[in-house]
């Protein structure tokens, strides 16, 4: 059949663009081989944050001593697992999402989609399962899957909720917290879930090959998290290469390059992602079939391939739901001939929902220096800010602002602390709108608030 638009992959970005364009009256086919909604609602953002909300409540209850009397907690992960199953994922059933999607006027195909060259009149051809369709415009929004690193023995172990090895897709379906867990990787997924499970009583060992946690963030952020994790009983092994994994002991035995080994009930592999660009027929439209990301312009068009667009994690612009839906909005406006609200990526912001949270916008100090800027930085510790000091236990962290001193504007900032993912909002405005640092100094900042540490960091710029 012929459509105005075919969208491959209905994660947050694909679903948004397909649904909006269909609502505008165009004929749209949306293809997804798994669940409409993609990684975020079923295996990512939402269920992981439900774990972290439970873990946060437990941590707060453990701070009652010394602040408000005494409290006792009896962690029960089954409560969180039930919430994830019933409230968030509908037992990993997307019937409601499919109904919503079709209600927008789109056609849905649950199948593997791939490009299949062009028709004689130049329309793009797409195979969806057994069927072949055509469209003048096709969007690739196929996202990522967990990467399994080349560790000896890993491929021999089964991956499943009841098996020894978990990725994000299994750990977020577990009905119980395991007694012990080895987490391979020290990135965002690892840090969030390591702390989440540890607070529910799981004995967690986290193994990171690099020299710090959250390698993409300011080095100080990883240092704060390492200290907090160790204080909470997580065994953090930095600069540790996993040599082999094998079934043994009470679960899985992980041997490190230094010869030491760790045994745990489960192994969570969170060592990065692989983009779903393989098996996609990229070569049939002249693209490199080995590509790991797709280049896009400001309209989300893939340069050199007429009618082909890409959004979301496959673009490599920022592996976050809000980037995918932002790109979907710009693309929808482009496809419908409306004004496009493209704001660029210089003020890209995100958060890691550990406790303390790590909020980030724009460049780190090193990235700004590497870009050739004349850099000044200002730092304020959360514990030295009035509200942070009042907060007491849990006030680890800092605000760090990075200024391009020649232009007198912030080009990046990091907030590690309680509500760091919220406080970064005002700094995102500052970086995005290029608010002069001189103006930031003249603003009112409520006392006593955590966000007042932004003023204190700005005043410390040197
Ligand atoms: C544990 C975890 C926690 C996360 N937490 C956050 C968070 O707190 N905040 C945040 O912003 N981001 C978070 N993310 C990242 C976020 O989930 C992704 O950035 C987002 O889902 C990417 O959206 P997308 O539109 O690229 O597609 P995806 O969500 O990756 O969906 C792609 C869809 O394409 C389908 N597909 C793939 N190939 C084909 C094919 N050939 N044919 C048909 N269908 C296909 C898949 O089945 C899938 O449904 C988290 C990720 C994980 C794993
Ligand atoms: N809060 C959020 O917005 C959020 C939450 C979770 C995930 N995500 C997104 O999902 C993506 C995937 O997250 P991730 O944590 O899997 O990847 P990541 O790239 O953030 O981290 C992977 C880590 O694993 C380490 N590693 C890789 N191979 C290793 C090995 N053999 N031994 C030891 N360490 C090894 C790497 O050094 C790296 O630090 C991220 O890019 C993130 O943006 C976002």
TrEMBL record:
<dbReference type="GO" id="GO:0003955">
    <property type="term" value="F:NAD(P)H dehydrogenase (quinone) activity"/>
</dbReference>
<feature type="domain" description="Pyridine nucleotide-disulphide oxidoreductase dimerisation">
    <location>
        <begin position="349"/>
        <end position="457"/>
    </location>
</feature>
<feature type="binding site">
    <location>
        <position position="113"/>
    </location>
    <ligand>
        <name>FAD</name>
    </ligand>
</feature>
<dbReference type="Pfam" id="PF07992">
    <property type="entry name" value="Pyr_redox_2"/>
</dbReference>
<feature type="binding site">
    <location>
        <position position="272"/>
    </location>
    <ligand>
        <name>NAD(+)</name>
    </ligand>
</feature>
<keyword id="KW-0285">Flavoprotein</keyword>
<keyword id="KW-0274">FAD</keyword>
<dbReference type="InterPro" id="IPR016156">
    <property type="entry name" value="FAD/NAD-linked_Rdtase_dimer_sf"/>
</dbReference>
<dbReference type="InterPro" id="IPR004099">
    <property type="entry name" value="Pyr_nucl-diS_OxRdtase_dimer"/>
</dbReference>
<dbReference type="InterPro" id="IPR023753">
    <property type="entry name" value="FAD/NAD-binding_dom"/>
</dbReference>
<keyword id="KW-0670">Pyruvate</keyword>
<dbReference type="InterPro" id="IPR036188">
    <property type="entry name" value="FAD/NAD-bd_sf"/>
</dbReference>
<feature type="binding site">
    <location>
        <position position="208"/>
    </location>
    <ligand>
        <name>NAD(+)</name>
    </ligand>
</feature>
<feature type="binding site">
    <location>
        <position position="49"/>
    </location>
    <ligand>
        <name>FAD</name>
    </ligand>
</feature>
<protein>
    <submittedName>
        <fullName>Pyruvate/2-oxoglutarate dehydrogenase complex, dihydrolipoamide dehydrogenase (E3) component</fullName>
    </submittedName>
</protein>
<feature type="disulfide bond" description="Redox-active">
    <location>
        <begin position="40"/>
        <end position="45"/>
    </location>
</feature>
<comment type="similarity">
    <text>Belongs to the class-I pyridine nucleotide-disulfide oxidoreductase family.</text>
</comment>
<keyword id="KW-0547">Nucleotide-binding</keyword>
<keyword id="KW-0520">NAD</keyword>
<feature type="binding site">
    <location>
        <position position="313"/>
    </location>
    <ligand>
        <name>FAD</name>
    </ligand>
</feature>
<dbReference type="GO" id="GO:0050660">
    <property type="term" value="F:flavin adenine dinucleotide binding"/>
</dbReference>
<feature type="binding site">
    <location>
        <begin position="185"/>
        <end position="192"/>
    </location>
    <ligand>
        <name>NAD(+)</name>
    </ligand>
</feature>
<dbReference type="InterPro" id="IPR001100">
    <property type="entry name" value="Pyr_nuc-diS_OxRdtase"/>
</dbReference>
<dbReference type="Pfam" id="PF02852">
    <property type="entry name" value="Pyr_redox_dim"/>
</dbReference>
<feature type="domain" description="FAD/NAD(P)-binding">
    <location>
        <begin position="3"/>
        <end position="328"/>
    </location>
</feature>
């Amino acid at each position: 059949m012929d459509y105005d638009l075919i969208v491959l992959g209905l994660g947050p970005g694909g679903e948004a663009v397909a649904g909006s364009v269909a609502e505008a009256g165009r004929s749209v086919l949306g293809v997804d081989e798994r669940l409409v909604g993609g990684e975020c609602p079923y295996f990512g953002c939402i269920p992981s944050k439900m774990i972290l909300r439970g873990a946060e409540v437990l941590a707060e209850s453990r701070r009652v001593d010394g602040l408000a009397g005494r409290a006792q907690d009896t962690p029960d992960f089954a409560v969180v697992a039930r919430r994830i199953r019933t409230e968030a994922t509908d037992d990993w059933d997307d019937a409601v999402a499919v109904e919503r999607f079709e209600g927008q006027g789109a056609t849905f195909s649950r199948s593997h989609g791939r490009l299949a060259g062009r028709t004689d009149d130049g329309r793009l051809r797409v195979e969806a399962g057994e069927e072949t369709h055509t469209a003048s415009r096709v969007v690739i929004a196929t996202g990522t899957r967990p990467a399994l690193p080349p560790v000896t023995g890993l491929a021999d172990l089964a991956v499943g909720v009841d098996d020894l090895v978990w990725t994000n897709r299994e750990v977020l379906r577990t009905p119980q917290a395991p007694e012990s867990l080895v987490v391979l990787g020290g990135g965002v997924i690892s840090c969030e879930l390591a702390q989440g499970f540890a607070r529910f009583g799981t004995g967690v060992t986290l193994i990171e090959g690099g020299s710090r946690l959250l390698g993409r963030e300011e080095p100080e952020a990883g240092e704060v998290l390492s200290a907090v994790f160790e204080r909470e009983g997580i065994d953090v092994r930095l600069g540790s290469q996993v040599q082999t994994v094998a079934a043994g002991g009470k679960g899985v035995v992980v041997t490190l390059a230094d010869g030491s080994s760790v045994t745990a009930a489960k192994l969570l592999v969170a060592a990065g992602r692989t983009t779903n660009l393989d098996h996609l027929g990229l070569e049939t439209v002249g693209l490199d079939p080995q590509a790991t990301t797709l280049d896009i312009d400001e309209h989300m068009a893939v340069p050199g391939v007429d009618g082909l667009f890409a959004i979301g994690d496959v673009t490599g612009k920022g592996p976050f739901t809000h980037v995918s839906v932002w790109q979907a909005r710009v693309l929808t406006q482009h496809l419908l001939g409306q004004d496009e609200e493209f704001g660029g990526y210089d003020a890209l912001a995100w958060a890691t929902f550990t406790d303390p949270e790590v909020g980030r916008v724009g460049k780190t100090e090193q990235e700004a220096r590497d870009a050739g800027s004349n850099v000044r930085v200002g730092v304020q510790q959360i514990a030295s800010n009035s509200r942070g000091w009042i907060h007491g236990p849990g006030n680890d962290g800092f605000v760090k602002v990075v200024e391009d001193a020649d232009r007198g504007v912030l080009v990046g900032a990091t907030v590690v602390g309680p509500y760091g993912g919220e406080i970064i909002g005002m700094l995102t405005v500052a970086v995005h709108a290029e608010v002069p640092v001189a103006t930031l100094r003249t603003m009112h900042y409520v006392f006593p608030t955590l966000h007042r540490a932004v003023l204190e960091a700005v005043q410390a710029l040197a």
